[in-house]
Specification:
Blueprint lengths: L6 H14 L4 H16 L10 H9 L10 E5 L3 E5 L5 H19 L1 E9 L6 H9 L2 E7 L5 E2 L6 E3 L4 E5 L7 E5 L6 H10 L8 E2 L5 E2 L2 H6 L1 E2 L5 H18 L20 E9 L6 H16 L15 H13 L3
Parallel strand pairs: 2-3
Antiparallel strand pairs: 1-2, 3-12, 4-7, 4-12, 5-6, 7-8, 9-10, 9-11
Helix pairs in contact: 1-2, 2-4, 4-5
Length: about 325
């Protein structure tokens, strides 16, 4: 029999664990909320499964539980932040909210971040921009786990990014994806469960295709769409790591199996206030029309429904909020 946990109870429980590790209550709740939100959306690889490793690194002194996020340099529409080695969700929310604040004032903004840590699911941040009637962008570099196009050893991270666009009566569009064929977190979960992974996700240490999850973790994941995913991952490395002055591939600190080193990840957050470019009602109507056209497009044989990006996750989150998380 499946046991379901009320969302608020799970969030409060996780927040309590972080408070016990010295994280201030408001920050503890932010981190817990980001992880539970990932579980709600069905992205369990970036959900509460990460609580343990965050606690381990906090307790080992490898993450600062009480960071002082500071401005290194700025213009009215751009900011470089130092995250003071804080929890990624704490630093990420600070940065995304700063991008939104400046976009509200000036129409658009970009915030680069260095000296941060794993920030969870990128969709969490762009949804904050959507709520402010902004188009949002969030991206980050990551520890080397992905082979270059034509390579066999880990060089780039899975370097995820998310983009969110508000709509009107329809749900907003949220694209959240790693630049690997699959997020490495999913392979970690498969290895924990002793399950095989689908072909085409990864190679072993010799560069041979594998469906063995542990061999994949010892080897390297592959970029999606071959050379195209590789190019996008390298671009994200430049926009997050290089531009922010963070550690860059392939020397980014690992989250796991790294008992002495910090991560020093780099992130990037962008926001564009919709009504700086188009009347908000007009934009919302045009977005709704596009969404409906996509949904009503002729389907391939055997396909019951065409989904918009993020739609599956929105529907799953609604059910999980109602029924609880399994």
């Amino acid at each position: 029999m499946t046991t379901r946990v009320k969302v608020d109870r799970l969030r409060d429980f996780c927040a309590g664990l972080f408070e016990g590790a010295g994280v201030p209550p408001a920050d503890a709740l932010t981190v817990a909320d980001s992880l539970v939100e990932a579980d709600l959306r069905g992205v369990s690889s970036h959900g509460t499964t990460r609580v343990g490793i965050y606690l381990e690194r906090l307790q080992a002194g490898l993450i600062n539980p009480r960071p002082t996020v500071s401005v290194v340099r700025e213009t009215p529409t751009t900011v470089l932040l130092d995250g003071d080695n804080g929890l990624g969700a704490v630093v990420g929310v600070w940065a995304m909210d700063e991008a939104i604040r400046r976009a509200t004032a000036y129409g658009t903004a970009w915030v680069s971040v260095r000296n941060s840590n794993h920030f969870g699911a990128a969709a969490y941040y762009v949804q904050r921009a959507i709520a402010a009637r902004c188009i949002g962008l969030a991206l980050t570099n990551a520890p080397a786990t992905m082979a270059l196009w034509g390579g066999r050893t880990p060089f780039l991270g899975t370097n995820p990014f998310a983009m969110g666009v508000p709509a009107g009566q329809e749900r907003p569009i949220v694209v959240d994806m790693a630049t690997s064929v699959a997020a490495r977190g999913k392979i970690i979960l498969a290895a924990k469960k002793g399950e095989a992974i689908p072909p085409g996700l990864a190679v072993d240490v010799e560069g041979r295709p594998t469906t063995d999850a542990q061999a994949a973790l010892d080897g390297a994941v592959l970029p999606f769409a071959q050379h195209k995913g590789y190019g996008i991952a390298l671009l994200i490395e430049m926009l997050s790591g290089v531009l922010a002055g963070a550690t860059i591939a392939p020397t980014v600190g690992n989250l796991y199996d790294n008992p002495t080193g910090v991560q020093n990840l780099g992130h990037g957050f962008g926001a564009v206030r919709v009504d700086a470019l188009a009347p908000i009602d007009e934009f919302a109507d045009r977005m709704d029309a596009l969404i409906r056209d996509v949904r009503q497009s002729p389907r391939a044989a055997g396909v019951p429904r065409i989904y918009l990006p993020g739609e599956i996750e929105f529907e799953l989150a609604e059910r999980n909020r109602r029924d609880g998380l399994a």
